[in-house]
Specification:
This protein is α+β, with helices and mostly antiparallel strands. Helices cover 59% and strands 23% of the residues. A hairpin with a 6-residue loop joins strand 1 and strand 2. The longest helix has 69 residues. The radius of gyration is 42 Å and the shape is rod-shaped. The two termini are 83 Å apart.
C-alpha cells in the first residue's frame, strides 16, 4: 500500500523535480524561498484562525458562566417566592370557616380604642384559587398614633388580612385629628 502511494507521489513530483533541476542555483534558491514563505504564510493563517476560534470559545465560556450565575440567582429568587407563596397559602388555609372580617376588625378597633364610623362588606376581585372578601372601613376623628396602632394590629394579626387601599385626610372639625378610609381584604380557599 505504501509502495503504491510512493509511486503515485513520485509520479506527481517527477515533472516538478525535473523543472527545478533545470533552474540555475539562484533560481532554485528563489523557488525554495518562495515555498518556505508560502508555508510560513499558511502556518500564520492557521495560527490566526486557531487563536480567533480560541478567543471566541473563551468569550462563549465567560458568557455561559454569567448565564449560569444568573440562572442560580433566579433559582434562589424563585425558591424564596415559592416559600412566601406556601407561607401565605398556609395562612389562608388556617382561617376558620366561620371567620367574619367585619367582626374581626371591630374587635381590633375595640382593642385599640378606635370608634369605627362605618363598615361595608363587599366581594373582592375573583381569583382562581381563593375567594377575596373586602371590608371598607371609615374612621373619623382619630389621632395618628391610634390609627397607626390600629393598622399595625390588622397587618400583624394571626388572621391573614391586608390593607389594600388607604386614604387619610385631616379631620374637618379638628385639624389635629385624622379621618381615614381603608379597604381591608382577606382570603379563603375556594
Amino acid at each position: 500500500m505504501f509502495d503504491r502511494l510512493k509511486e503515485k507521489l513520485s509520479a506527481l513530483l517527477e515533472p516538478v523535480q525535473t523543472e527545478i533541476n533545470r533552474l540555475s542555483a539562484r533560481e532554485r534558491m528563489i523557488v525554495y524561498g518562495g515555498l518556505i514563505g508560502f508555508v510560513f504564510f499558511i502556518a500564520i493563517v492557521i495560527l490566526i484562525w486557531v487563536a480567533s476560534t480560541s478567543s471566541s470559545y473563551t468569550s462563549k465560556i465567560a458568557n455561559s458562566k454569567e448565564n449560569i450565575q444568573t440562572i442560580h440567582e433566579l433559582g434562589k429568587k424563585y425558591q424564596k417566592s415559592e416559600q412566601q407563596v406556601s407561607q401565605l397559602d398556609a395562612m389562608i388555609s388556617q382561617a376558620p370557616k366561620d371567620f367574619r372580617l367585619a367582626t374581626e376588625l371591630e374587635s381590633i378597633a375595640r382593642q385599640n380604642e378606635i370608634q369605627i364610623d362605618s363598615l361595608k362588606e363587599r366581594a373582592g376581585q375573583p381569583h382562581e384559587y381563593y375567594e377575596e372578601t373586602q371590608v371598607v372601613v371609615s374612621i373619623k376623628d382619630v389621632d395618628l398614633r391610634s390609627l397607626i396602632d390600629f393598622f399595625q394590629s390588622i397587618e400583624s394579626s394571626r388572621r391573614f388580612m391586608l390593607i389594600t387601599n388607604l386614604s387619610i385626610k385631616p379631620a374637618f372639625k379638628d385639624p389635629t385629628k385624622l379621618s381615614a378610609q381603608a379597604v381591608i381584604s382577606t382570603f379563603s380557599p375556594i
